[in-house]
Design a protein that fits this description.
By secondary structure, this protein is of the alpha+beta class. The chain has a single domain, classed as Jelly Rolls. The protein has 9 helices and 6 strands; from the N terminus they run ααβββββαβαααααα. Strands 1, 2, 3, 4, 5 and 6 form a 6-stranded antiparallel β-sheet that branches. A hairpin with a 5-residue loop joins strand 3 (49-63) and strand 4. The longest helix is centred in the last third of the chain and has 27 residues, at 121-147. The protein is globular. The model has no long low-confidence stretch (mean pLDDT 93). Residues 17-94 form the Cyclic nucleotide-binding domain. InterPro entries: cNMP-bd_dom, cNMP-bd_dom_sf, RmlC-like_jellyroll. Pfam families: cNMP_binding (PF00027). This is Crp/Fnr family transcriptional regulator.
Length: 191
């Protein structure tokens, strides 16, 4: 499937655009490839774009004062990634985004996003819907972290995203779940 078809299919799950509208919106995206380990966003960077993932996997994370990594999100095929606080508030990045596996993305810059929203009302609807889905997922994740033990969090993640276990190194899954690599190994082998 081409990048054009992937994005169109993704958007058309939520809104319908005419061919002309979609072609115009698609013209704002720039294809960008990243290699495994490459950073897209560093803490302190200016952030003016978000990435739609066509293939591969990105992760959004921060490292605390004790040098412990905390992963906020994995972004796989048809997911979006950026530092949204920095992007929407015109601030410097407070999180990092890097490449877990070689990735092909489409980059949408803020200026183009805003132009598309002003000119095509349906795009604004799509982006609002997408943001709302992100908030819902974040709330669900926070509640899981607050209420569930490590086993429940692991089972929930593997049920929801089974492909993650083969795509992402185990120490990163452990960091996402907030457990040690050893604990993750025990959880995996005791299922």
């Amino acid at each position: 499937m081409t990048p054009y078809e992937m994005l169109r299919q993704h958007i058309h799950k939520t809104i319908q655009l005419s061919d002309e509208q979609f072609d115009y919106f698609f013209s704002f995206f720039q294809p960008v490839s990243f290699k495994k380990g490459e950073q897209l966003i560093h803490v302190g960077d200016e952030v003016d774009c978000e990435y739609f993932v066509l293939s591969g996997c990105l992760k959004t994370f921060f490292v605390n004062d004790e040098q412990k990594m905390h992963i906020l999100q994995f972004a796989m095929r048809t997911w979006w990634a950026s530092d949204y606080k920095a992007l929407y508030n015109n601030e410097r990045a407070t999180v990092n985004v890097d490449c877990v596996a070689d990735a092909e993305t489409l980059c949408l810059h803020s200026e183009e996003r805003e132009k598309a929203c002003k000119e095509i009302r349906e795009i604004e609807t799509f982006l609002r819907w997408r943001s709302n889905k992100g908030y819902i997922s974040l709330q669900k994740r926070i509640l899981s972290l607050l209420n569930n033990d490590a086993r429940s969090r692991y089972e929930e993640l593997m049920h929801q995203y089974p492909e993650l276990y083969n795509l992402v190194p185990k120490h990163l899954i452990a960091a996402y779940l907030g457990v040690s690599r050893e604990t993750l190994s025990r959880l995996y082998h005791s299922k």
